[in-house]
Amino acid sequence: MRKKTLETILFSAVGVIAMLLILVAINFIAGYFKQRVDLTAEKAYTLSKGTKAILAKLDTPVQVRFYVSQRSSAMPVNFKTYAQRIDDLLNEYRQATKGLIEIQKLDPEPDSDAEDSARLDGVTGQPLSNGERIYLGLSITQLDQKQALPFLAPERERLLEYDISRAIARVSKSNKPTIGVMSSLPVMGMPMMPMQEGGAEPWAIISELQRDFNVKEVEITADKIPEDIQVLVVIHPKTISESTEFAIDQFVLRGGAAPGLSRSEVGPRPDRGRWDECAPEQIKPG
Q1: How far apart are CA 31 and CA 21, in angstroms?
Q2: Strand (E) positions, the chain?
Q3: What's the number of CA atoms in the CB half-sphere (13 Å) around residue 107?
Q4: What CA–CA distance (Å, rounded) separates 36 from 31?
Q5: Can you give the pLDDT of all 286 residues of the chain as single tens digits?
Q6: pTM given for the model
């Protein structure tokens, strides 16, 4: 009887130790291969193919400073929840790059070094009705290139990954790619002429492209596409000639891309609320 009791104690002790060792091993493996399962219907925390392509090209560390008010009692609940979602998404970026993206989380309390750092990085606090300021922004740096997302509003949550990936792409590019724009419409804007009122601003699509690319105008009558252009955006080519079509054909054959946009696809002019309706047009080189 005594021997049986001793065996029971020994086996129980061995069993407990074995279970502890198994749990430690599971925790180690889970920590090493840490990956969060995205159960949201819209896959909000699964990085897109475009983001993965940008991250795959990184060969130099990228520093991400996440400025978020953590101890402010005035921080609205929806902002606290959104801050956690941002933190989760940033961890996805870090895991996808195997540590090439380095994340630092800072709490910019009033008169603190973190607040001074936020200002230098271009991250701004948003005032609340009680006079306090809350911070929820990012600074993304690679070598001497820096981009700031001054304040991440919850209303732009669907564009959060786009904004972060765009900033990473900007700091990781030493030279902006060159895009050509060909159009029979004044999409590039109109210069100010003497003895006339002010010129017209570039259209919204051009202004947006200029944020990430060198944009060069290509005349609708061009018989050759410049060699430095990698992508030629053709917008509403109403008066295009056969020689220009041939030039676009040659451009595509040498590896260039030439997406065609109709008048209705490029958005409103700066001086109009919407486009008049028109039938879509497509470029068919050659």
Answers
A1: 15
A2: 62-68, 101-106, 126-127, 133-134, 136-142, 145-149, 178-183, 214-217, 231-235, 260-261
A3: 7
A4: 11
A5: 555 554 554 445 545 454 444 444 444 433 444 444 444 555 555 899 999 999 999 999 999 999 999 876 778 888 999 999 999 999 999 999 998 999 999 999 988 999 999 999 999 999 888 778 899 999 999 998 999 999 999 999 999 999 999 999 989 876 778 889 999 888 888 776 665 565 678 888 888 888 778 899 999 889 999 999 989 999 888 878 889 999 999 999 988 888 877 655 555 544 443 323 333 333 333 3
A6: 0.61
